[in-house]
Design a protein that fits this description.
Number of domains of chain B: 1
CATH topology of chain B: ABC transporter involved in vitamin B12 uptake, BtuC
Largest sheet of chain A: none
Oligomer: heterodimer
Number of strands of chain B: 2
Strand content of chain A: under 5%
Helix content of chain B: over 70%
Radius of gyration of chain A: 20 Å
Structural class of chain A: mainly alpha
CATH superfamily of chain B: ABC transporter involved in vitamin B12 uptake, BtuC
Shape of chain A: globular
Number of helices of chain B: 14
CATH architecture of chain A: Orthogonal Bundle
Number of domains of chain A: 1
Strand content of chain B: under 5%
Distance between the termini of chain A: 15 Å
């Protein structure tokens, strides 16, 4: 294992870093509200919250840009934390919700709910949790088959095949049901534009629980990342920790897929960058990952809006174009076989 | 009884086949033909198989089926057959070369490269002629293959790294394809979308004629190189010891495999998992030597795509599924089963 460089060293420096990260997040959020097809000056943004006068700029700030920014923040943080837990849990540098088929499972479940139950947003995220959970279970079982147990390679390959399978099922339902296609087309591309703000409010408690659970488990995760034998030797109930961590992953990735559709590679890239900055302690990795994930998704969304004005790219494409080369780099560096 | 049949038409050429090969090829050919007849006969306007045969034979039946059979349905079924043959042979060569049972043109990213090139052409230059598509797809697939091979090379090539890098490259190519689909002219985009899902819907004689030359050139070429493929399958050292020019022959076989996959993808979009399943089924039927394996795999692949297309038409009639969905739904569990079988390697 390559030596982890600890850039900050002491605890107070890590805290300072966290505060700086929060400031950066604030700047990015303001930029996300200000920039786009129409640029809105900061005073106007401020006025939109204090002296709302119903002008079109104020309306844009309050009904379009702000919800979009909040969706970005939440989804980015949730995906990054889910990815960090998965990588620690499976000892797999390539693990992330979209690579192991968990996003695809949630997406299929959402499409099925929209198609067969014709229902409101309530059952959409219930479906997303179930789909994510079942996919996670299948991929974990498939990846741990055989004498060597869970290897990164088997897990990744099983995830890729599962993704293709679930995606084909989704496509099949969409071909058969034109109405569903109309409803989920934009959602499926993985985008944060024009998201249902009420849906975000409804899944927010679940994301909060997932994040909280992750933070509570962070100490145990640090031990578990040393290896299962070590953790057991130190007196940890590894099975319990694993199950709770899996619940947290399912809550986090299921809710983000329900809100923003499958957005790839945030969960893969962010934990690596964060580990490079703060070392191996999950008590620091998780909060940093949440911050960095939110910042990264905000930046990706801003650039997706600005690159080809007046049109915009789905943010899922931006993250894939940045993240996939990173995945290749990891596959080259970290997989020795 | 000897397990081999030796065929020596002239003194300079000879090859030997597993004894099981000729009868199995015959049975497969009959089955494929039956599937094709059923596929041509099935549709909104059902035609009995006997009448299909008569119409194909040029005997005019009273109902006048000629237009439906010869113009609408026959080219579609022929495209399905040819695409299946191309993909299956491509997969068989890849599996032999990489000594990796999980190799498949779709999984290691060749298909994604071909798709990207073809979609670029369809969306940006809609006026371009049909027969150029396979060339563009070949170019795209070749670039992607070289890229994957180069990136996977880290003090020697590893089959597993090859697959992982293929997954990464596929993500990039798919993202770029989505960009094109999002911003192209809507008419061209809908054409590209139909094509992307992996379907033989609405394929005409033009498609048959633009695909056929590729198979006519590269299938025999693959067959000629069977002996080298056998040697390479034993490992580079053994192959060298047996007098095979390892690097040269490997490059040539890889080119053939890429060309076959690219031409198929250019015609029918990405029909997944055929290149993975067909060679495995064929290996169960006739054993691992490539002289018998390649033709058996090709016929099996053709049969799979023709039957998948028939199923796709029948399942939710009158709505047609793209047949790529059917092959993926059958193929992905099979892939996972293979993964299970190879779990200890």
């Amino acid at each position: 294992m390559p030596r982890k460089i600890n850039w900050f060293g002491s605890r107070s420096r890590l805290l300072v870093g966290l505060v700086l990260g929060l400031l950066l997040l604030l700047v990015c959020s303001l930029a996300s509200i200000a920039l786009g097809a129409i640029e809105i000056p900061l005073q106007t943004i401020y006025a939109a919250f204090t002296h709302f006068n119903g002008s079109s700029e104020h309306l844009i700030v309050r009904t379009v840009r702000l919800p979009r920014t909040l969706v970005c923040l939440t989804v980015g943080a949730a995906l990054a934390v889910a990815g960090a837990i998965m990588q620690g849990l499976t000892h797999n540098p390539l693990a992330a919700p979209e690579i192991l088929g968990i996003d695809a499972g949630a997406a299929l479940a959402v499409v099925m709910v929209v198609c067969f139950f014709n229902d409101t947003s309530l059952s959409v995220y219930a479906g997303a949790f179930m789909g994510a959970g079942i996919a996670a279970l299948i991929v974990y079982l498939l990846g741990s088959l055989g004498r060597n147990g869970l290897t990164p390679l088997k897990l990744t390959v099983a995830g890729a095949a599962l993704t293709e399978f679930l995606f084909s099922l989704t496509l099949g339902i969409l071909v058969l049901n034109q109405r569903t296609l109309e409803e989920v087309r934009f959602w499926l591309a993985g985008s944060v534009a024009g998201r249902d703000f009420n849906l975000l409010l409804q899944v927010l408690p679940y994301i909060a629980v997932g994040l909280l659970l992750a933070l509570i488990l962070s100490k145990q995760l640090t031990t578990l990342a040393l290896g299962e034998d070590v953790a057991k030797g130190l007196g940890q109930q590894t099975a319990l920790v694993k199950v709770l961590a899996a619940v947290s992953i399912v809550l986090l990735s299921g809710s983000s897929v329900a809100v923003a559709g499958p957005i790839g590679f945030i969960g893969l890239v962010v934990p690596h960058v964060v580990r490079f900055l703060v070392g191996v302690d999950y008590r620091w990795i998780l909060p940093y990952a949440a911050l960095a994930g939110a910042i990264l998704l905000l930046l990706a969304d801003i650039s997706a809006r600005l690159i080809i004005q007046p049109q915009e790219l789905p943010v899922g494409i931006m993250t894939a174009l940045v993240g996939a080369p990173f995945f290749i780099y990891l596959a080259r560096r970290r997989v020795h076989k | 009884m000897k397990p081999w049949v030796v065929i020596r038409p002239r003194d300079t050429i000879s090859f030997r086949l597993d004894r099981r090969v000729p009868p199995i090829l015959l049975i497969l050919a009959l089955l494929t033909f039956a599937a094709m007849l059923m596929n041509v006969g099935y549709g909104e306007y059902t035609i009995p198989p006997l009448d299909v045969l008569k119409t194909l034979g040029g005997i005019e039946t009273d109902q006048g089926y000629s237009l439906v059979v010869n113009t609408l349905r026959l080219p579609r079924v022929l495209v399905a057959l040819l695409v299946g043959m191309g993909l299956a042979t491509s997969g068989a060569i890849l599996q032999g070369l990489t000594r990796n049972p999980l190799a498949d043109p779709g999984i290691i990213g060749v298909t994604a490269g071909a798709s990207l090139a073809a979609v670029t052409l369809i969306v940006l230059f809609p006026a371009i002629a049909l027969f150029t598509l396979p060339f563009a797809a070949f170019g795209g697939a070749l670039v992607v293959t070289v890229l994957i091979y180069w990136l996977a090379w880290n003090q020697g090539s590893s089959p597993m790294r090859l697959i992982l890098i293929g997954i990464g490259i596929t993500s990039i190519a798919t993202a770029l394809t989505t960009v094109l689909v999002t911003f192209g002219e809507i008419n061209n985009v809908s054409q590209a979308l139909i094509w992307l899902t992996g379907s033989v819907y609405g394929r005409s004689w033009h498609h048959v004629w633009s695909l056929l030359p590729w198979l006519a050139v590269f299938l025999p070429l693959a067959f000629v190189l069977c002996r080298d493929l056998n040697a390479l399958n034993l490992g580079d050292d053994v192959a060298q010891g047996l007098g095979s020019h390892v690097e040269q022959k490997r490059t040539l076989l890889l080119l053939i495999s890429v060309a076959l996959a690219a031409a198929s993808v250019a015609t029918a979009g990405s029909i997944g998992f055929v290149g993975l399943i067909a060679p495995h089924l064929a290996r169960q039927l006739v054993g691992p030597t490539h002289e018998g394996l390649l033709p058996t795999a090709a016929l099996t692949g053709g049969m799979i795509v023709v039957s998948a297309d028939l199923l796709a038409k029948m399942l939710f009639a009158p709505i047609e599924l793209p047949c790529g969905i059917v092959t993926a739904i059958i193929g992905a569990p099979y892939f996972l089963y293979l993964l299970y079988q190879n779990r200890n390697q």
